[in-house]
Amino acid sequence: MRQFYPNHQKGRVSLQDVCAIILAAGDGKRMKSKSSKVLCEVLFKPMLKWVLDSCFASGIETVCTVVSDHAKDVLAIVPENCAIAVQKERRGTGHAVMMAREFLESNVDGDVLLLYGDTPFVDEETIRAAYEVHRAGGNAVTVVTADLEQPRGYGRILRQDGKFSAIVEEKDATEEQRAIREINSGIYWFRTAFLLEALNRITCDNAAGEYYITDTVAIAKGMGQPVGVYRSPRADVVLGANDRKGLHQLNETARMRVLEKLMDLGVDIPFTDGVVISPDAVIGADTRILPGTVIKGKTRIGEGCEIGPNTELNNCRIGEGVRVHSSLLEDSTVGDGARIGPFAHLRPGTTLQAGVKVGNFVEVKNSVVGEKTSIAHLTYIGDSDVGAGVNFGCGVVTANYDGAKKHRTVVGDGAFICCNTNLIAPVTLGEGCITGAGTTVTDDVPPYALAIGRQRQENKENWAKEKGKYRKKQ
Ligand code: UD1
Ligand code: CA
């Protein structure tokens, strides 16, 4: 099976002395989105975040992102150590790079990598391999290209006598040029001093009336400077998305890659139907993922678990041998051997220790639940510190919110909370205590005590008949 994240250790060139620019100022017009295109998600991760992660993972430390002036949401995912350049009007990729001129001037020695925020699969291997070609050729510009079966929408690579000569955008291309299948990925290495010079020469004399960064190739040629290509053997690395259909294709490609990588590592995914797993998730061998399971963010799952069917985990840490069936778990930690579901909801801030059971229609929020505690049915535990070996009967509710403030509930080890108990927080129940079914606990319960807070039952003899309420079945 294809290795997607190769470990390219041998003969590594250092990328610490180079810098990078990422273009992310485009709008979401073709996506028909109110927010920025680069925030459209592939496997629940914004495309720009994929690009930023690959850039930093390859060892480049000096990075500038070009953003539009109204894109607060874009800024929110750009790390603090990344410089920002603002492009007020969207006048093309060349114009966007011009906005980073100051950044380039302060890093003028050496080379700069240019990436687009809508090309999420760029990876360290491609960045490095292209850089080696760039250095070896002493190139002014090196373009990463690939051969696509469906080159529609991409800039085409023009060659003269087999030698790279220019990039033509689809809008400007002749029929003959459109038949070319080698495309521009939008991943480039530039000699920085050359790029600064070339930026002065780019014009907007084309079908779109935009400043194209791709014109730098012909500009270099005209200046007698060497240009080169790194023709990627893996076409999917260069895929970009301009509209929702393109985004779906990227999602499908990425989804299968992640699943294949996990299978290589010993994760059991017998059917891939509806299984979507974040590229940042880590899953142990012999864990079985069943259909309809969505695993988001930086979730970590140990070995020998069974997750699904129909389950979503978001940024969770799951131990070993855990079983989760038809449930939603968010920002939660689950200890070894725990059993969750069906139809349970762990909300953020929940920690279940080893061997805990959380069953049907149970919600737990911002709480710690001790080892082997059982919360089997129809229960809400919020803002609570629960000990080990506690048993919650059916329908227990912590009343943690008084309308203004949230309060904590503390339950000691081995307590036995009978059905339909209300625990009115703040309240503390001691170790080994018992509550009577239907009790509303408003005061602390000492260890080993029985708390009963309900009206004693009275039977009124023959009441139903005398009041005419008794209806004999016909
Ligand atoms: C671009 C390339 C094309 C290449 C394709 C690869 C140019 C002229 N064309 O076309 O050759 O095959 O990418 O995917 O470069 N952006 C800005 N400001 C702008 C315009 C764009 O920041 O004014 C950013 C966008 O956010 C995007 C990237 O630049 O991340 C590329 O822009 P886009 O309009 O998608 O270019 P393509 O038409 O895909
Ligand atoms: Ca694009």
From TrEMBL:
EC number(s) recorded for this UniProt protein: 2.7.7.23, 2.3.1.157
Positions of acetyl-CoA binding: 400-401, 437, 454
Keywords: Acyltransferase, Cell shape, Cell wall biogenesis/degradation, Cytoplasm, Magnesium, Metal-binding, Multifunctional enzyme, Nucleotidyltransferase, Peptidoglycan synthesis, Repeat, Transferase
One of the record's GO cellular component terms: cytoplasm
Keyword Coiled coil: no
GO process annotations (BP): cell morphogenesis; cell wall organization; lipid A biosynthetic process; peptidoglycan biosynthetic process; regulation of cell shape; UDP-N-acetylglucosamine biosynthetic process
Function: Catalyzes the last two sequential reactions in the de novo biosynthetic pathway for UDP-N-acetylglucosamine (UDP-GlcNAc). The C-terminal domain catalyzes the transfer of acetyl group from acetyl coenzyme A to glucosamine-1-phosphate (GlcN-1-P) to produce N-acetylglucosamine-1-phosphate (GlcNAc-1-P), which is converted into UDP-GlcNAc by the transfer of uridine 5-monophosphate (from uridine 5-triphosphate), a reaction catalyzed by the N-terminal domain.
Name of the protein: Bifunctional protein GlmU
Organism (species): uncultured Anaerotruncus sp
